[in-house]
């Protein structure tokens, strides 16, 4: 644990540099957050129909899960100079993280009901089946489909499929509650 703290410790110059960042307050419903932008940047919309959106997404290195075995070996190294650091290659050996897939299911399921200036939808439930892996630079075909609606409750289905192999990477069902519009 001490080795990790040492690695994450900032120098005085680094600390001074970071403290100069101005982070503006996030305005919900008016702009996307860093989290949303980080997770879905790079999604290309191919087709939009009522209740259906088809997209393409090339898996970026920023959303890859690290190869834990290399990382654990590095943290467990007791030597001054660790020989394992030369072989750390997280992004090329890893796969699209489950958190990134959950973000895609959440954001792209919500995209079906998005109305400019409308009330924000609330996620009620998400169920995701992780079926295979996607590596860096794999191109995914993402289909977001509206399953149905009952009052203000909506159900969507988001499927992530590897374009090259045809394998389904993940399938997510996303339930949302949409605030009813005022009749005044």
Characterize the structure shown.
It contains 6 helices and 6 strands, in the order αααββαααββββ. It is globular. With 184 residues, it is α+β, with helices and mostly antiparallel strands. Helices cover 26% and strands 29% of the residues. The protein has a 6-stranded antiparallel beta sheet with strand order 1-2-4-5-6-3, covered by helices on one side.
Give short descriptive properties of this protein:
184 residues; alpha+beta; six-stranded antiparallel beta sheet; 6 strands; 26% helix; globular
Q: What's the arrangement of secondary structure elements?
A:
Elements (H helix, E strand, L loop, with lengths): L1 H7 L3 H8 L14 H7 L3 E6 L2 E7 L9 H9 L13 H4 L4 H13 L11 E9 L8 E12 L2 E10 L5 E10 L7
> Which structural class do the helices and strands define?
alpha+beta
Order of helices and strands: HHHEEHHHEEEE
Bulk shape: globular
Helix content: 25-40%
Extended strand count: 6
Distance between the termini: 59 Å
Question: What value does the Rg take, in angstroms?
Answer: 21 Å
* Number of continuous helical runs: 6
- Uncertain regions spanning at least 5 consecutive residues: 69-74, 78-92
What is the mean pLDDT?
78
Order of strands, main sheet, comes to 1-2-4-5-6-3
Report the major sheet: 6 strands, antiparallel
Percent of sequence in beta strands: 25-35%
In summary, what is this structure?
With 184 residues, the chain is of the alpha+beta class. 26% of the residues lie in helices and 29% in strands.
């Amino acid at each position: 644990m001490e080795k990790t703290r040492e690695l994450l410790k900032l120098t005085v110059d680094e600390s001074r540099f970071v403290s100069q960042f101005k982070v503006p307050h996030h305005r919900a419903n008016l702009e996307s957050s860093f989290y949303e932008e980080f997770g879905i940047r790079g999604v290309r919309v191919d087709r939009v129909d009522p209740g259906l959106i088809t997209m393409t997404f090339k898996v970026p290195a920023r959303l890859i899960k690290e190869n834990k075995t290399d990382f654990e070996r590095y943290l467990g190294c007791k030597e001054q100079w660790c020989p394992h650091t030369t072989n750390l290659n997280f992004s090329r050996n890893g796969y699209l993280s489950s958190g990134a897939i959950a973000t895609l299911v959440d954001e792209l399921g919500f995209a079906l009901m998005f109305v400019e200036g409308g009330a924000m939808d609330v996620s009620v439930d998400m169920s995701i089946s992780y079926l295979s892996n996607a590596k860096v630079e794999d191109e995914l075909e993402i289909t977001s489909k509206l399953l149905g609606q009952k009052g203000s409750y909506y159900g969507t289905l988001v499927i992530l499929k590897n374009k090259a192999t045809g394998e389904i990477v993940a399938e997510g069902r996303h339930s949302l509650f949409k605030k009813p519009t005022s009749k005044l």
